[in-house]
Design brief:
single chain; 409 residues; Rossmann fold; five-stranded parallel beta sheet; 13 helices; 14 strands
């Protein structure tokens, strides 16, 4: 599967700061110190409705991580999946009377277009669950043969007891895990499971549903969590720098994925740091496909909204915060974009000395994009109060905002 074209990232003078970021697994800040190649895995979409503002906010957060790393002169190895076969996708296809493969391809194409418009840097490896199946099957077989998985009516389940580190990602108690498992695709009440929290690794073929040859597993399709494990191990290996996604993925998805990988390899941790973005609400409720309360990037683009304004609306909120999308949020972003573009178009710009370092320091401080926006706002406001004579400042500011915030002025 192919990703989307990369926008050019301007080179900046000097070097950026190492990123200090909130780690879910320790509930505190850590300083990321990757080697020459920083490794990151971000969980992708299930393509039955893309791309709403919650998606955009999540991918914007991890785009900033990449940009901070690039500014430290590191290379970035970025991997993202597409869950192009799963219950929600099949259910939507049945509801709409369409072929599930066509639905997945249509929405994945739209997602690519939205990411391109928002100038999100693409992954080097963009892998669909279906194309990963040949690599998933042997992992499930290994877990089963090692006693870390078991069969239940033809389905294969992972035993969470097989990983002594289970629970260390989300740090939730058993009752909270059980509730979230039921809410987020698990089946804790299924009779016969060794532990209510045990997740499915391989779902035996059902009538009317797609299935693939699973070797000794029989025909079926993969569970949700093992998909990302197979892709991440194949392209990044154990102990990669950041596992990322929305805060609703901490449990069960990231918790279960970590345990799968750790039981497979005997190594710990799967990822060195777990980073999660907040949720975006609309009319007082979290945006979700199940509720249908969505604002789509593609709809805004069709209405003529500048993608740079959409990106500024995302950047105006700290990536870990939960916030609400409103018309006012978009209006403020459009006004900010207009002010910034006016400021970099005038020849009498004030000096920009120190602004680049302000932006760098803000982003290194747990991706504090609102503080970075405030620094640019103050520079732009100087034009109105004092003017300036630094002919090079507009170029410096434009390149900094482009390279570090992904906004083209």
């Amino acid at each position: 599967m192919y990703a989307w074209p990369a926008s050019e990232v301007p080179a900046l003078p000097g070097s950026g700061r190492d990123l200090r970021i909130h780690d879910t697994s320790t509930n505190g800040r850590v300083t990321l110190e990757p080697g020459p190649v920083a490794r990151i895995y971000v969980c992708g979409i299930t393509p039955y409705d893309a791309t709403h503002m919650g998606h955009a906010a999540t991918y914007n957060a991890f785009d900033l991580v990449q940009r901070v790393w690039l500014d430290t002169k590191r290379q970035v190895q970025y991997v993202q999946n597409v869950t192009d076969v799963d219950d929600p996708l099949l259910e939507r296809a049945r509801r709409d009377g369409v072929d599930w493969t066509g639905l997945a391809e249509r929405e994945t194409t739209l997602f690519r277009e939205d990411m391109t418009a928002l100038r999100m840097l693409p992954p080097q490896h963009y892998i669909g669950a279906v194309e990963a199946i040949p690599g998933i099957v042997p992992l499930v077989e290994r877990l089963r043969d090692a006693g870390a998985a078991y069969e239940l009516d033809g389905d294969i389940y992972f035993s969470v007891a097989a990983d002594p580190h289970f629970g260390e990602v989300s740090r939730l108690d058993t009752e909270a895990m059980r509730l979230l498992s039921a809410e987020r695709g698990g089946d804790p009440d299924r009779p016969g499971k060794k532990n209510p929290l045990d997740p499915v690794l391989w779902l035996a073929a059902r009538p009317g549903e797609p299935s693939w040859d699973g070797g000794t597993l029989g025909r079926g399709r993969p569970g949700w969590h093992i998909e990302c494990v197979a892709i991440a191990l194949d392209h990044l290996g154990m102990g990669f720098d950041v596992q990322g996604g929305g805060s609703d993925l901490a449990f069960p998805h990231h918790e279960m994925g970590a345990s799968h990988a750790q039981a497979l390899t005997g190594e710990h941790p799967f990822a060195r740091t777990y980073v999660h973005a907040g949720m975006v609400a609309l009319n007082g409720e979290k945006m979700s496909k199940s509720k249908g309360n969505l604002v789509f990037v593609s709809t805004l683009r069709r209405e003529g909204v500048d993608p740079a304004a959409i990106r500024l609306a995302l950047l105006a909120h700290h990536y870990r915060s939960d916030w609400e999308w409103t018309d006012e949020v978009l209006r403020e972003a459009e006004e900010r974009l207009a002010r910034w573009r006016a400021a970099v178009s005038r020849p009498d710009a004030p000096a920009a000395e120190g602004l680049l370092e302000e932006i760098r320091e803000a982003l290194a401080d747990d991706l504090d994009a609102p503080a970075a926006l405030g620094a640019v706002d103050r520079w732009a406001a100087l034009q109105d109060s004092t003017g300036g004579t630094d002919e090079g400042a507009p170029g410096v500011v434009s390149r900094a905002v482009d390279a570090l915030l992904g906004v083209a002025l």
